[in-house]
Amino acid sequence: MSNEISTIKPLWSETDIPMLRPFLIAILILSTSNSSVSAERDNICGDPHISCPALVYQGLTYPYPRESGSFLFIDGASYPYTKITGDLLGDSEVRLPGDITLKVSDLLEKLGLEELKNQRLHAVVGYGSNPAPSQLSRKYAADIGTRGIVMPVIKGSIEDYDVVWTPLFVQYGSMPSTLFPSPGTKTDIWINWMTTDQRERADQTERLSENWYTRTTLSPEAVEFAGPNPDMLEVYISCYGALDL
Q1: Geometric angle at alpha carbon 168, from 211 and 61, rounded to 5°
Q2: Structure letter (DSSP) for residue 9
Q3: Is the dihedral angle over the CA atoms 209, 145, 116, 65 positive or is it negative?
Q4: pTM > 0.85: yes or no
């Protein structure tokens, strides 16, 4: 994999963009306006697990609320880190409700998830919705309450890149984002420390097989964050480049 983020020319022009988003959202809203639609009918919005109005709300609220700092994501819950060491699932500490501080290893043991603390973790830069707890809950819903999902999400910053729109529309009407070279810019990012299985799931949600996004490497010198130094820093980049306005 290359460690250079290329400047891919967008496929859609600036004259296409202003009309597409409101049109798509209008279609989603109108699709729910007919009260005679049978309950047995397939969801016209394409997802049997969520209503069309919920999809519209999901699209309008992208990239979703985030924690103000680093946190440990466990089965849909977020535990803010109060101490970050080189062992994010060991002697690092998090805050529980009631202002209780606990070592992560102790918390995992109390939750019956201690077997997950020794898995290999991959550092993946998150900048759009991937650092948002609600999006992680959606993406890893199949693991929550079953085999368990444990993911450190560490806040940091990146230099000489910015987070910009990419000319795509996803099913629920949002226009996602991508990293793009921007000399002199410094912006917030998060590091999603993923297991191999979690990264494979992220590959699916980023539509790698459909060439929506690609997973590539990024120079560690461009990023600052607390915790262990990864052997390799990865990032998802849109294959459509930045929106050109």
Answers
A1: 125
A2: P
A3: positive
A4: no
